[in-house]
Amino acid sequence: MLGRALTSTAWGMIADRIGRKPVIILSIISTLLFNTLFGLSVNYWMAIATRFLLGSLNGLLGPIRAYAVEVCRTEHQAIGLTLVSTSWAIGLIIGPAIGGYLAQPVEKYPKLFPANSIFGRFPYFLPCLCVSFFCLVILISCIWLPETLHKHKLHKTEDQGIEDFAEQQNSSTTNKSLLKNWPLMSSIILFCVTSFDDMAYTEIFSLWAESDKKYGGLGFSSEDVGQVLAVTGASILLYQTFVYPRIVKVLGPVNASRIAAILSMVLLFTYPPMTHLSKPWLSVVVNIASMLKNNLVVTVVTCSFILQNNSVPQEQRATANGLATTLMSFFKAFAPAGAGIV
Predict the structure, then answer these.
(1) Which positions, given as ranges, span the membrane (predicted)?
(2) In terms of pLDDT, which residue wins out, 181 or 96?
């Protein structure tokens, strides 16, 4: 998280300078390399270092949102950005499953993985290796990925000189103009506050759900909590694919984000009374509330992506998304501590 916060804006500026495709490819290579090294960590500090480098050298989040907007026609931008958010929902389902089933394979599958193999020495290497293999497949597919940042050069020398001067002036004032761009900054603020709320909710929900009812919790087991999270992830996938594009088409991103933000805040007030329910109604209500809460958050976040990308010209789009990722990372980093204090 810290590594991503420190470098996301810089990666966005690089993507605006040399193109989206090179940054996407470099990010995938860094993920492949450092994710593999993380699985081969021999001590705590090596694990910390590889995760920090993975976050620092992975500039994917900003350019990929800019790419999703640029590769789609205007009327299909919501669908393009929905696919970005949907991939996150798929990761929520597949990621924990890969870690859960493939971690410590020597203990779980002793016939396939002997104790004296590399998987015995590094019990978490197998899930990391699977993710790295997937990154390799994606990296190969990027050969056919078209570039969306097109800079048409003029042929006349005088015009070329004017263009070079204008480009230098634009690059020197990019950060200043972005910070003064109120439509952009307001959408980034909305994105950061929503991300803070979502991270705090995620951290608190599991603790609250597993706490005993006499302490105001739900008395859920870890399996019950996992089931709620799995159902929620599946609902996000379906919602983003079939429902969200239609909502944005009817309401627009501004009205959709406003309504979703208000409903999300109202929904939180329904959580404390749930402790008075008993099964099976408790499980049903909690699952419904979790699905509604997370889909409302996804609505606000995806709408903020649309607003951010439409608030800046193409040559500043990746930088704007990188700035949003940087600020969001700082907000998410402090969210667990803030939620714990409250």
Answers:
(1) 23-42, 48-68, 80-104, 124-146, 256-274, 280-307
(2) 181
Show Cβ contacts of residue 257 under 8 Å, excluding neighbours closer than 6 positions: 190, 299, 300, 303, 304, 307
Contact 254, 299 (CB under 8 A): no
Type of residue numbered 320: A
* CATH superfamily, with its number, for domain 2-144+181-341: MFS general substrate transporter like domains (1.20.1250.20)
The letter for the amino acid at 300 is V
Q: Are 163 and 171 in contact (CB under 8 A)?
A: no
Q: What would the two tokens of residue 273 be?
A: 């009374």
Distance CA(54)–CA(38), nearest Å, equals: 9
Closest CA to 23 of 38, 33, 13, 35: 13
Comparing CA positions, the residue from 187, 178, 183 lying closest to residue 301 is 187
CB under 8 Å to 303, separation ≥6 — which residues? 248, 253, 254, 256, 257, 260
d(CA 162, CA 14): 22
Which run of H or of E encompasses 296?
Answer: helix 281-310
Cβ(106)–Cβ(115) under 8 Å?
yes
DSSP 3-state percent helix, strand, coil across the chain (nearest 5)? 80, 0, 20
One-letter amino acid at 236 equals: I
Structure tokens at 112: 């396939």
Distance, in Å, from the CA atom of 306 to the CA atom of 255, rounded to the nearest integer, reads: 12
Q: How far apart, in whole angstroms, are the C-alpha atoms of residue 291 and residue 278?
A: 19
Q: What is the pLDDT of residue 251?
A: 93
Question: Prior bond to 280 cis, omega within 30?
Answer: yes
On average, the pLDDT of the chain sits at 85
Residues ≥6 apart with Cβ < 8 Å to 35: 54, 128, 131, 132, 135
